[in-house]
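Hello everyone,

My group is preparing for a crystallization screen and wants a predicted model to guide construct design. The compound we'll soak is pyridoxal-5'-phosphate. Before spending weeks at the bench, it would help to have a computed complex in hand. I've included the protein sequence and the ligand's SMILES below. Output in structure-token form would be ideal because that's what our pipeline reads.
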Amino acid sequence: MGSGSEKAGRIGGIPVDRIVALKAREAETYARARPKAANALSGGIDGFYGGVPMHWMNDWPTPFPLLVEKARGASITDVDGNMLADFCLGDTGSMFGHSPAPVARAIRRQAGRGLTYMLPDEDAIAVGRLLKKTFGLPFWQIATTATDANRFALRVARAVTGRPKILVFNGCYHGSVDETMVRIVDGRPANRPGLAGEFRDLTAGTKVIEFNDLAALEAALAGGDVACVIAEPVLTNSCMVLADPGYHDGLRRLTRAAGTLLLIDETHTISTGLGGYTRRHGLGPDLFVLGKPVAGGVPASVWGMSEDVAARFRAYEKEKTPGYSGMGTTLSANPLQFAAMRATLEEVMTEANYAHMERLAARLVDGLSAAIAKNGLPWHAVRVGARVEFICAPGPLRTGGEAEGAHAPALEAAIHVALVNRGVLIAPFHNMMLVSPATTVRQVDRLVAAFAAICAELAG
Ligand SMILES: Cc1ncc(COP(=O)(O)O)c(C=O)c1O
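Reply:
Good plan to model first. Here are the tokens for the complex, ready for your pipeline.
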């Protein structure tokens, strides 16, 4: 992927040779500070294909991954004794901090009571009540990943509407849900480039348009064949794209008018505040998905339905051919998930914690913006609640296409490693930073100072 701001030997306004030199220097510093990890990981971990237990672990721009000893609150410590302020937080799974005390307590308690039995317990009863209260929708199901929750919710959407297609936004990511893997490539819908083992033409069942384009939405829904629009309220899986003022009103109005359901995937935008972007902005979705941090880091996800969708699905189930629905997985809704989810919903996802996250995230985005401005860089910083990004291109971005153009992998990688060497870990993808309830002002200031120093060095 090229950078939209790539001009004659420059990426994001920075001469390429300066970026290459920074990356090389920082890679050496990184390796020197981690002899144990270098020894254990440089050749890959024996027994794992590709040398890592999950191939995304090779996506970190560091010469080899951190070998973690422990993570607590908003800090992560590697086996070589380096402690970092963690703003990646497991790419959102630990958005509320590593091992929040109430969750750790609940897990300890549940550990002696059985870990999975395919039956409800009293925590399940509490979680049902908490999901209704926190997110507003009346009917819920539990899955184990956001990927699965989206997959099941999309099945319901197709079942109740009797329509075959879904609509996604260019640049979206909703987990490894096959039917969402469609992009606009050279102006036309196409399978997302790079998909392994995908021989189907996914565009047959999926329409794709740009975010923030209501005219394109209206045209795409006009055929009456779209069961569901699946949307993040803010695109967070490319460089961050905020919704234009009024865009969500338009999205809701046009989907309703077309008889198309609206699935809001809050897996990342739960950073916005209690109840997510949906509650803060009154989105009124038909279907709602939340994964990653909903159980404080224990694998779990939830998907909710409106009264109307639930009634229609009940009617559909009465009529459908008896047999396996294609929904559900064996370990989902297990008591460990319920213990952790109850603790998260009752004691961790609180107004007070969100207020702290919001305050520090505002401080962070202001600090990053000031560093960008001071160094005259053609970049910008953006935020949705506790989720912050710096983007090495001018902003604001309005579409997934623009976001892809703004992506500057080589420059982002150099900055990432330089930040690690200055004691701060950010996400390996698109410069994402999360502020947790455990994050301190000192950690934020450390990140801002490190970023400012790197900006100054890059700006020369
Ligand atoms: C918005 C969104 N939905 C769903 C997912 C999938 O989550 P998981 O990998 O836990 O299934 C992601 C992952 O990044 C995501 O960003």
